[in-house]
């Protein structure tokens, strides 16, 4: 009896402590974190200062690196892919089929604690499948927030964003896929860093990855519940959601005249067979793309476009929802080039190599995976792209692993989780869901990133211990 009482008292005190810490970080971060666009500008200036102070890069050369990154074809292409993922994901979710599905699921959920658990687990699972599914999770989150009173939208967004903790250990892992593919691994093979491709059985199925995924699936939902703030009507999502006009009504109003006196053009606009034809063409393109290049961003966007076409009932309905979706893509247009400029400076000036060399110089075979974890978590703040970061840090990490005899698969996974971890401190990837959430709930990244920063610090300790022990 006494033993049970002690356990309950300890649990209550820990719960209270974590809640107070969560509230503290939420308040402090909201005071200091500006809009994500301003954050990107400040980070640009910090990167320029570091490059000028720590490298031999001159001012004019620095500007050339910045401009080169700002308008890099790869960055602009990747940004456009991100816009398509956001818009196609929104169009998939904002369909009758998906809304009915979300409605059926949400009817079984009645309490805010259930909402937080479902959002967290859904986000984790979908991120393990592919990070590009974030818009679908965001639409489900909105549906839950609309139907369950008392949900704090700050914590709901934190739960949604925290799912990115595992994306780089999932099926869309940039580092693991690059090393398993002969076409991309050849860069490292030709440089003499590795002898052959590294199959996913040595990375994604490594005991470290399994342990980190299992731990996160178990602990993160509990952490979200432990840090939930006291109820405040000002942050009640159901009360904050503006009087939204249902999309079905908008579409009905837009096509009312067409339905009264349909012309041949109107019938074509509403012909679902046109959606099917284009979807079939996309499927053929998807199969060819996967055969030639594997499941990359091209394949992902083709898959999401196919889903969006099939889930929307007509071409005109697809167009109307896409117009609604594209309104949320403005942040991508203005912020992606800025982070491209940061990446251009970080790589071109040699800053990334300096950071990597300083950390790896003190490592041995046992400590190298943890140092890779720390190094990637720092560099990710400046290069918030898993694939781009691996191209920068991969060579020094693989060289150090070869010299020290470290487990290469473990080193790659440790790098991957460092990259994923500090996404929680960088508002960059909120672009995958915040435009959708922000359509119904007026919010900024600073409203919820205090919680994610706190979770980032806690999971840094947890993941460090697991990397050392496994």
SSE inventory with pairings:
Layout: H1 2-32, H2 36-54, H3 59-70, H4 73-93, H5 96-106, H6 112-129, H7 134-147, H8 153-162, H9 174-180, H10 182-190, H11 207-226, H12 237-240, H13 247-254, H14 256-260, H15 264-269, H16 272-293, H17 297-311, H18 315-326, H19 330-348, H20 351-360, H21 368-379, H22 386-404, H23 408-421, H24 434-438, H25 449-469
Helix pairs in contact: 1-25, 2-19, 3-19, 4-7, 4-17, 4-18, 4-19, 5-7, 6-7, 6-8, 6-11, 7-8, 8-25, 11-25, 16-17, 20-21, 20-22, 21-22, 21-23, 22-23, 23-25
What does this structure look like?
The chain has 25 helices and no strands. It is an all-alpha fold. It has a domain at 2-76 and 162-238 and 334-469. The longest helix has 31 residues, at 2-32. It is globular, with a radius of gyration of 23 Å. The protein starts with a helix and ends with a helix. Mean pLDDT is 82; it is low at 5-11 and 243-254.
Q: Give the helix tally.
A: 25
Distance between the terminal alpha carbons, to the nearest Å? 36 Å
The ordered string of helix (H) and strand (E) elements is HHHHHHHHHHHHHHHHHHHHHHHHH
Question: Proportion of β residues?
Answer: under 5%
Task: Estimate the helix proportion, in percent.
Answer: over 70%
Largest sheet: none
Q: How would you summarize what this structure contains?
A:
The protein is mainly α and 470 residues long. Helix content is 73%, strand content 0%. Helix 6 (112-129) runs antiparallel to helix 7 and helix 20 (351-360) packs antiparallel against helix 21.
């Amino acid at each position: 009896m006494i033993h049970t009482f002690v356990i309950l008292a300890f649990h209550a005190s820990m719960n209270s402590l974590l809640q107070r810490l969560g509230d503290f970080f939420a308040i402090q971060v909201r005071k200091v974190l500006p809009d994500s666009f301003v954050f990107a500008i400040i980070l640009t200036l910090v990167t320029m200062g570091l490059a000028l102070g720590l490298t031999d890069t001159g001012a004019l050369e620095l500007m050339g690196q910045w401009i080169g990154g700002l308008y890099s074809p790869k960055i602009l292409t990747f940004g456009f892919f991100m816009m398509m993922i956001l818009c196609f994901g929104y169009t998939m979710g904002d369909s009758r089929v998906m809304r009915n599905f979300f409605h059926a699921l949400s009817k079984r959920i009645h309490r805010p604690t259930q909402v937080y658990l479902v959002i967290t687990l859904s986000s984790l699972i979908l991120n393990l499948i592919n990070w590009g599914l974030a818009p679908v999770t965001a639409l489900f989150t909105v549906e839950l927030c609309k139907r369950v009173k008392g949900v704090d939208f700050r914590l709901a967004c934190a739960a949604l964003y925290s799912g990115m903790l595992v994306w780089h250990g999932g099926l869309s892992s940039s580092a693991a896929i690059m090393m398993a593919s002969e076409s991309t691994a050849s860069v490292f093979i030709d440089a003499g860093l590795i002898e052959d491709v590294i199959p996913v059985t040595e990375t994604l199925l490594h005991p470290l990855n399994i342990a980190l995924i299992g731990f996160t699936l178990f602990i993160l939902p509990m952490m979200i519940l432990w840090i939930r703030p006291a109820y405040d009507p000002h942050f009640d999502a159901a009360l904050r959601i503006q009087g939204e006009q249902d999309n079905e009504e908008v579409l009905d109003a837009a096509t009312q005249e067409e339905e009264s006196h349909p012309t041949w053009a109107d019938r074509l606009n509403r012909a679902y067979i046109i959606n099917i034809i284009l979807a079939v063409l996309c499927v053929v393109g998807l199969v060819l793309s996967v055969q030639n290049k594997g499941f990359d961003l091209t394949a992902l966007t083709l898959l999401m476009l196919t889903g969006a076409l099939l889930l929307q009932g007509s071409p005109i309905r697809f167009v109307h929802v896409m117009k609604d979706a594209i309104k949320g893509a403005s942040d991508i247009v203005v912020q992606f080039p800025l982070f491209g400029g940061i990446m251009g400076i970080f790589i071109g000036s040699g800053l990334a190599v300096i950071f990597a060399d300083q950390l790896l110089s003190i490592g041995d075979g046992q400590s190298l995976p943890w140092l890779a974890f720390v190094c990637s978590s720092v560099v990710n703040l400046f290069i918030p792209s898993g694939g781009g970061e691996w191209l920068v840090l991969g060579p020094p990490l693989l060289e150090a692993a070869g010299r020290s005899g470290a487990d290469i698969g473990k080193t790659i996974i440790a790098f991957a989780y460092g990259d994923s971890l500090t996404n929680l401190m960088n508002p960059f990837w909120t672009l995958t869901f915040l435009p959708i959430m922000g359509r119904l709930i007026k919010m900024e990244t600073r409203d919820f990133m205090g919680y994610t920063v706190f979770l980032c610090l806690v999971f840094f300790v947890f993941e460090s211990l697991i990397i050392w022990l496994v």
